[in-house]
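Exercise 7. Predict the joint structure of the components listed below.
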Amino acid sequence: MEKVKWLLLSLILVITSSVKAQSDDFADNGLLKAQLTLSPSYLFSEKQSLFYLHGNLEYYLQDQISVAGEGYFFMGSSNGDSTIFDYNHSGFFGLSKHYVKGNSDFYIGLQPGISITKLKSVNDSLPNPPNGVNPLFSVISGYNYFVGNNVHFFIQMRYVGGQNNYGKALNINELRLSAGLGFNLKTKRRKYSD
Amino acid sequence: MNRVFLTVLLFFGLTEMSSAQSDAAGWFSLGGRSTISMFDHDGVGIGTGGQFRIQFSKKINTDWFADYISIDVDDKVRSEYYHIGWSVIVYPLNSDKEQVKWQPYIVAGHCFDYNKKTVITQNEISKDRWGSAVQAGIGTHYNLTPRCDISLTSQYMIHLTNELEVETEDNVVSIVTHKSHSLEGHLLTTLSVNYKIAHLWRK
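Solution:
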């Protein structure tokens, strides 16, 4: 009877400790990521391809949840043509849900944002357009692959929804693509999974 | 031996229970939001903003928000709304939030409301007004993890103030103050993401 009790106790110990086993997934709580890349986009209303300098800073609040701030600096048309914008910079802030397995990290997220937009002046129809701030809605989806301890490859797709209401009403819905090499740092010791 | 065995068993039982239990009251959450404004005489617009929440009990939460909404009125006028306010969230079902995925709620509250209307092609033609508003509606959280949720809320906001109206006559656009008090407003549908960043107090 004594043996059975101790066996039962050992079993409980094994079960509780196995639940807290170490995770093999690379992306977890405390991971800090930074990325900088050129991002081409497609502006639906003008049927034009633009591009941006895209920077991102992201922190993993939990194993599956990260908070990120992202900025896009307008660089013009991707094929050198004139665009409707003098500039169309934008910034986003939001949370992402991650599906992590090993070194792979797939995610989807919601990032509200704003754009700072100025349309290009056109002699008669739009002589001196003002600049303005427009609210933006955005959803993102992407994939990270971590190589080594401090580097990862990434690809991200972002849908941006918005409307410029300064100078001329213009739909500024866009699809933006970013890819490249990013840097990451573990700010916390690898913890036991919950 | 029996006493030792029972003590050890009780200790592990309590440890596991305490890690699974949570106290809903006292959570402070922070988040971002996107809003669509509809059924307004101005038209449809998009907004962006943020909010924090302070939860008082399993059934009662509060939402403190700020929004900036921009609406294109017939390609002629820009109507900008700034909202800063608060709402009470009541969970009639599934109030043990950390153990459910979907958590529906009823929401009602009050906000301060600033509206500015500007002719898009002539920035100097502009009019603004301050006001107050009340809002009520329904929504649901979808709990991604025990500390993170995505929330969809739809609420009707009634402006308790004079409205600014856009009038067009012979292609001349003007903005006038409409003085009658009717229950005018807009339907605001908000998608937000929220993260519980601190437990301010425990029961």
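Discussion. Residues 62 and 110 of chain B are 12 Å apart (CA to CA).
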